[in-house]
Amino acid sequence: MASATRTDPVLLASYQRAVHDYADLLKSFAARLLADDADWAEDVAQDALLALYRHLHDVPESAWRPWLYRVTRNLCLDRLRRRKHRPKNFRDFADEENRDPVPPSRITNRPEIHAQEEEMQRDLEKAIAELPPRFREVFLLCEQQGVSYEEASTILDVPLKTISTRLFRARQRLMKAMASHLED
Amino acid sequence: MSDNRPTTDASCRSIRSRLGEALDHRLGSPDSKRVREHLLACKTCRGEYSMLTRLQRATRELPTERVTDDFRARLIERIESGEGARPDILQHPMSIAGRIKLFTSGALTAAALLVSAWLVYDGLRTPSNPQSMPIELASLAGPNDTLRPVDANGIGLRAVQKPRELFDGLRAQAPRLASQPPKRAMAQLREQSEALIQSIRFVNALDGTLFELPPDVRTSYVEAERTASAIVEEAQRSNDSRASVDRIVALLQHGPTLEPTIRVTIRLRSSEPVDIASMLQRHSKSMEELSQYLRFFNEHLLRQGDVVAPAAEIWGSPTLRLGNR
Q: Is-above-0.90 flag for pTM?
């Protein structure tokens, strides 16, 4: 593994900026992918950034963003898989009927938000959490994180057409789930 | 608008399958036009498009999770402890083209890079052992939302060495000036001297904040500035005469000598994020003066491709912003 201690200052400055730019975004992405395991989101974000530091010499700076999202996504999937194999300790990813997927911290302490909007956010978070993982990750990347279809295709290692299809289906499901909020 | 134009279930299905792409501006011109025309004619599809728009807006307005305050400290701790990344998270490695040229950016959360760093260099040489700088110890501290990080070490080094570089260039040129037409020679002398003065003033503006110059270097730069000012005055007084050129050449040949190898130790002082624009503005009596500092910064200290915001944008709210040329 390349040693970052021999990294030039410019690269380290860029890394510093990446930590600043991506820590919150990665945590958000991870929290919504992990749904009721969202407590792990910060650790996941930190693991991803640590991994980037250890691979500064291997990953060109232009690829940092997709690389970070991909590592974050892999970490989340890994955690979800482990949870699936330990149902006594962790609820199965698919078994989401009786849980509130939205951590209270994400929907409270925002007095500036009107109650109606807060309710909409809560329902939207829940609806997103209930999406199948393959739809959820595409939707979060493209719609919530602002990643392009092409970049999402790279991150998830699926064809562009698949991104388009999954995003379409995710939106269809969410519109159905959120109809009462979205209709005129 | 015509809600009465005929639409069919088939055409609606076809259009609805493209609404998301239309929303994301991913349709080509013909498809985009077809969707637009259909929406004008079909209230139902228009309603669905409207829902999609609201869904997108609501999603983008979802709150962002914030990392905890000690996130960076814990990350630094893990980095310093030598903890490795788990190999399994790198499964399915992405195919990545060769490394791109690293950009040298920098607006200035400079001191985030600077804690306890001592830069030592000899003359025009870059640090012989730059990796020994404990930059990473502080590299994650206190970022500023509006600033891009900067290679502050590099800027510090380039700033400090620039006066010597310019002074050497000026002196090296002196013997050749005798054979040039006086007017051209005088113009060159004046331009180079003004650049030298500007470089020294730039260093003075940062001396004591971003770094601290050793007294002997400070003295030598004062003398160099005095010489350069004398050249500018001579150029202003003269009528581009041969005699004036000769006087300047003599001044340069007998003026102060900057040692060919100046050993400079720059002590980077601040442990807090700093903004070089703020420092420069504190030394500027006017926007024009700030503009001169920034011009020097652009021309001599930034890497290719970066450019600092104009003084007019910084004056009064000095936050250094960088863009691309």
A: no
